[in-house]
Amino acid sequence: MSAQGAELVNQQYLRDHALTRGFMLGRPVSATVTPDGKKVIFLRAEPRAASLRLFEYDIDSKETQELVTPQQLLKGAEEQLSAEEKARRERMRVSVGGFTSYQLSKDGSKILLPLSGKLYLFDRATKEARPLNAPQGVIDPKFSPDGKSIAYVRDNDVYVLSLSSNKEHQVTKGGTPTKSNGLAEFVAQEEIGRFSGFWWSPDSRTIAYQETDTSEVEVWYVTDPAKPGQAPHAMAYPRPGRANAKVRLGLTGVNGGRTTWIEWDSAKYPYLATVTWPADTQGASLTICVQTRDQRELAVLAVDEKSGRTRPLHIEKDQAWINLDQQMPRWLKSGAGFLWTTERDGSLALELRSPTGAAVRTIVPPQMGYQKLVHVNEERGEIFFIGHPDPTEAHLHRIKTNGTDMVKLTQEKGSHNASFGRSDDYFVRTSLTADAMPAVSVHRATGEQVGGLPSVAEEPLFAPRNEVLKVGSNPELFAEIVRPRNFDDTKKYPVIVEVYGGPTANVVKGVRDPGILLRQWLADQGFIVVAIDNRGTPGRGRAWERAMLNSFATITLDDQVSGLRALAQKTPQMDLTRVGIRGWSFGGYMSALAALKRPDIYRAAVAGAPVVDWEDYDTHYTERYLGLPQQNAEVYKASSLLTYADKLQRPLLLVHGTSDDNVFFLHSLKLADALFKNRKHFEILPLSGLTHMVPDPVVMEALWTRTVQFFKTHLGDPE
């Protein structure tokens, strides 16, 4: 095949990858077993249309039926989203349209469908969907536990709509853009992992809602410079060491009226981390978790629902920081107490605490690599969880509530997740393995497979040649290497490092997913592509992760360099005189940092949406690792890319969405300005109108093409 022909084939694959969202469109997502255990509701798009539709799978007959499409409900109109809903989806990393979520009523008879800022109710018996009389702009709709009403937020207040009358009434009053009711604040959504700001009581008579006061928070503006006639979007953005939103939690009747405010020491514990309102649980009440600003202390508080007073059940402490778990506490209906996760003994463990908060027993010990809770079957005394000692894998396990008789329910190497819904008898499993793209299957609680949700996705035309291995010592690092499919072991190849390197995410996975497919495509252009998980990344224990405390710019980069060298010792075809590096977000920061601090190793870098100056990122994330800038000025300076702007010697391409509301475009502009004033040569590629995500297929294809051209120019071909 000629070089020109190879280029055409490669370009076509990149186009296919972009249009199919990495061959993920058409695969089942958001699957839920119905309460009767007979059907599975799920969402699925067409292979090249990023709009999710609603389906039902019959477990016995194995037949699938489409229930309703977004187009049927919109009747040909375009989908419309409010600025608030767009921002919420950005926080949740949702980049598709159509039915992006749904909710089953408690009895499973009806499905609530938010679409284009409005609400629809689908009746599973009649197979009909009717519009609900809620105005445009509804956010975070939820069924009441009794299934008779829907609560939601619009215009900064909580409303309830009666399903019998199809009429709404206002529950909270006085909400404004700077003092909203029922909405989670920015850091709750972006960093804490809590996307909701109101909660139904189990008896459907009361609503707990968050009041958020952002009047003292800095206002930043997000705009699209390519549209100067369009007004900028204002948002309260809390930067390190500056004012956060003030949050309090109130209780009010479903018909509104007087609010009982929950009392806790909000000066000491300003962050409302989790809210749990257990149903049918002996001895349990509304429970909240609140966190100190330095994130080293987390208080579990029981709420007296009449007076609003609280009493402490447990105080979790950590000398560095506490990783929040939105699933905890998980109250047991028997009255035995609540489940809790802790890293107190070196790694994440699952334990039982009494109704008063006293430690009872460890259920899943630290050495098991616990990751998340899946389901509790109290009648059988069983807990299902995801975990594995190796961070490159995740498996479903079943264990007795007394910590005995643990059984591993997934055997195939890879990452598996599962969900039960309200049925104890069946679960849906999503499996990512090395040999196939993600698949969704249906299983009995014993683990026996009884079906599979059908995919209509296109399949990639090649299998990636990726290998996961451990390299180096002190520390020993997980690494992944991808060789070209036409690999010639007599040649020396330029190397590209795919990096993230930050907390909360790993890049070494060993499974077939969109990320590894792109790495294979990149390798096929004439590179060896590698990924390394340095200290500070999750899944290897408390000390490993906390090694990043007070420094983003030392251990992370040192481990990347040592891992690269160790990998080259095992792979002599890697040419360490021609190493490039690319990443996005924290990975963009790491890429730019590598070019600035280690030009002896990294000869070219592509930095996407990099955080440049950590004083310009948000409070909850940054202060967790670096503390307050007023107290740790030198830490912030050492972690800032601006500190090293005069050191640039290697080619650097900065890429950034001009409307990014997470890592603002400001970051790349500040670095570009510093480099320019230091007489340094660099390139900058603004992505017009794009945010922190790059879902646009045309932009995605063009960006990867530009990336390869950049590395080809500066690293060359195999020799």
Structure description:
- It is a single chain.
- This protein is of the alpha+beta class and 719 residues long.
- It contains twelve helices and 44 strands.
- Among the domains are: 185 residues, Methanol Dehydrogenase, Chain A, CATH 2.140.10.30; 250 residues, Alpha/Beta hydrolase fold, catalytic domain (Rossmann fold).
- It has an eight-stranded mixed beta sheet with strand order 37-38-40-39-41-42-43-44. Strands 1, 2, 3, 4 and 5 form a five-stranded mixed beta sheet that branches.
- The protein is globular, with a radius of gyration of 26 Å.
Outline the secondary-structure elements.
Elements: H1 3-19, E1 29-33, E2 39-46, E3 49-58, E4 64-68, H2 70-74, H3 83-92, E5 97-98, E6 103-104, E7 110-115, E8 118-123, E9 128-131, E10 139-143, E11 149-154, E12 157-162, E13 167-170, E14 179-181, H4 186-192, E15 198-200, E16 206-213, E17 219-222, E18 233-236, E19 246-253, E20 260-261, E21 271-276, E22 287-291, E23 297-303, E24 310-317, E25 330-331, E26 338-342, E27 349-353, E28 359-364, E29 370-377, E30 382-387, E31 395-400, E32 407-408, E33 414-419, E34 426-433, E35 439-444, E36 449-452, E37 466-471, E38 477-482, E39 493-498, H5 514-524, E40 528-533, H6 542-546, H7 555-570, E41 574-584, H8 586-597, E42 604-608, H9 619-626, H10 633-639, E43 652-657, H11 666-677, E44 683-687, H12 697-715
Parallel strand pairs: 3-5, 39-40, 39-41, 41-42, 42-43, 43-44
Antiparallel strand pairs: 1-2, 2-3, 3-4, 6-7, 7-8, 8-9, 10-11, 11-12, 12-13, 14-16, 15-16, 16-19, 17-18, 19-20, 21-22, 22-23, 23-24, 25-26, 26-27, 27-28, 29-30, 30-31, 31-32, 33-34, 34-35, 35-36, 37-38, 38-40
Helix pairs in contact: 1-5, 1-12
